[in-house]
Amino acid sequence: MASSCSNSQKLHQGFMLDQNDNPNTPTTMPKRHIAKARTNRALRSLSVSIVIPLILNAVIILLFGSGQKYHNFDPKPFWFAPLWFIHVASLGSSFLMGFAAWLFWADGGFHAHSDALPLYIAQISLSIVWDPLVLRIGAVWLGFVFCLVHFGTLFACYLIFRRVNPFAKDLAKPCLAWVAYLTLVNYKLLFL
Fold first, then answer.
1. How far is 37 from 21, CA to CA, in rounded Å?
2. For the chain, what is the radius of gyration of the CA atoms?
3. How far is 113 from 27, CA to CA, in rounded Å?
4. CA dihedral sign of residues 57, 132, 97, 125
5. Which of 9, 60, 150, 189 could serve as 126's disulfide partner, Cβ 3.0–4.6 Å?
């Protein structure tokens, strides 16, 4: 039984937050230094998992976010969000999914579920591509297909996240609602 525990620790080393950075850490090191090192490592990984998708989304919004094609669709229904709200909600969705992915990773989810990382990367990519595709280029049909695929990948992330961390699952719910709303907006844009 002891060998299975050591194999499990070797298997998860580098993926779990409760592992030391250095396996040769002397036992004489005070526990508060070890705890501080773990906290610093956790905060670094948290900031990376949140900042990278957020910056990617912000750069796309700054480069392609004028939305001139979106303003040309007239008359728009009253339930169409203003462009600034679309951008803020997209950034919020990136933040929430980054935090959910970090919680999932911290519990060893990306290691235990090999299909989770490709789905998460696909979800990030699809969320970044929709803005310039629909709002700048005006490719509404292609944007609608991307929205459907984005919703599917986000729902798959939701299903995988709930197996490992219930709070990560709850963070994905507003993102699902946002992508469902974007899908409805995109569907309506097909007929304007």
1. 8
2. 20
3. 33
4. negative
5. 150
